[in-house]
Write a structure and sequence with these properties.
Blueprint lengths: L9 E6 L3 H14 L4 E6 L2 H11 L3 E4 L8 H9 L9 E5 L4 H9 L4 E4 L4 H19 L18 H28 L4
Parallel strand pairs: 1-2, 1-3, 3-4, 4-5
Helix pairs in contact: 1-5, 2-3
Amino acid sequence: MKRHQQRRHWTVMLAEDNDDHALLIQMALERASRIPVEVHRARNGDEAIMMVEELVPDLILLDLKMPGRNGLEVLEAIKGDDEFRRIPVAVLTSSDRDDDIAQSYGLGGNHFITKPENPADLEQSLRSLLKNVEELSGIRRGSGNLEATAVSAVNPGSVALRKFLVWGALVAVVVFLVAFAMSVGVL
């Protein structure tokens, strides 16, 4: 078995329409990485999708609010494509809304980073992100000749039976309470 080869550089696709944010992110990426970072910037959602198809980057940093297709639409397109779904996508946005976070993860996003106001915090977040992506990429996935050996201890039939019994018990309690209330004259 070959050992995982060390990464020599990062190819990052940054989808960010704000010039100032893009510059700050690129500078923070370069400081956060111990190896060279090659940043390719898309200024809108449609450009981002085309760029992913051309580059097949190591990492995608994706803003949610962009002209054309928004970040969630771009994320859905990337994660819905068998060829590109393996590319890690970090949503890097000014939003910290729970529904944006939930939608991002629900569509297959791998990370969610709210843009901090302090450049040093952004650099630290990106350093952690790069370390995480590098560690995950070192894990070999599916050689194709392995079989699953684990069997779930939870049988889907037993889950359904348990739900039926819980609902049945609840109905029995309600019927009992109604009958009791009627026998004492409350109803």
